[in-house]
Amino acid sequence: REVVGILALQGAFIEHQIALQRIPSARKIIVCPVRTPEVLARCDALIIPGGESTTIALLAKLAGLLEPLRQFSKSKPIWGTCAGAILLAQVVENTKRGGQEVLGGVSVTVARNGWGSQVESFEAPLTVSGLDNSEKPFTGVFIRAPVVLALHPHPDVPPIEVVARLPPGSIPASQTTQPQAGPDDPRIVVAVRQGKHLLTTFHPELTTDGRFHEYFVQNCIFSSHPI
Ligand code: GLN
C-alpha cells in the first residue's frame, strides 16, 4: 500500500484524512500525518491542506521540513489545496511582507487571497474533466482562495492539464475579482494537474464529495505520468 502523508502543521489536515478514508481506493493507501522530515521520508505522496500559507511555510521551516519538501516535490506526488496550492505554485503574488516560501512543483502563478477577503468567500459548481461522473458538477468551496493568474507551459516540464474551471457567471457579483467571460482567462482555472502534482485553489476536503481525493490517488499516485 502507498503511504499518503498529510502535512499536519496547520489547517484542514484532519478533513483530508477523513476524506481519504471514505474513497473507493482507501484500501490501497495508508494515511499518515506529517510533522517531521523523518515521517515525510516514509511517504510516497503528500497532501498540503488549506489553512494559512505563510503560517504553514513558517512552521515547515521551523520543523526543518522546507528543503525536504522541495526535494519531495521533485520525485513524488503532491496535492495542494488552497493554502497548499499557494505553497505548490512556482510564483506567488500578493504575499505578506517578507514574501512567501514556495515549493514550486506546479508551473503556475497564483495570487493569494485573489478573490477578496474572508467575507467574499463563496461556493460555485465547477466544470471538471477526468473525475468519475464528470457530468455531475463538483461544488468548489473557495475560502479566501488564491487565483490562478498564469499557466507557464514549457517544453522542459510536463504539460499542465486543466482539471476544473469556474463556469461563466458562477462567481458572485460581490467578488473583487471578476474574470472576463472568455475561456482563455486563467482566472477561471481552479484545478490543474502537472505530472504527478495536483493543485486545487478550493477545498474538496470540506465537502463530502470524495472525487478529487479519488482522482489524486488514481491519477497522481497510481499513475505512470512523469513527475
Ligand atoms: N488565504 C489563505 C492563504 O493565503 C488560504 C486560505 C485557505 O486555505 N482557505 O494562505
UniProtKB/TrEMBL annotation:
Similarity comment: family membership: Belongs to the glutaminase PdxT/SNO family.
UniProt: L-glutamine binding residues: 51-53, 112, 143-144
HAMAP family assigned to the protein according to its UniProt record, in alphabetical order: PdxT
EC number, as in UniProt: 3.5.1.2
Entry annotation: catalytic residues: 82, 203, 205
Biological-process GO terms, alphabetical: pyridoxal phosphate biosynthetic process; pyridoxine metabolic process
Descriptive protein name: glutaminase
Gene Ontology cellular component terms for the protein in this record: cytosol; glutaminase complex
CDD domains: GATase1_PB
Upper taxonomic lineage: Eukaryota, Fungi, Dikarya, Basidiomycota, Agaricomycotina
Keyword terms: Glutamine amidotransferase, Hydrolase, Lyase
GO molecular function terms noted in the UniProt entry: glutaminase activity; lyase activity
Catalytic activity from the UniProt record: L-glutamine + H2O = L-glutamate + NH4(+)
Species: Pisolithus microcarpus 441
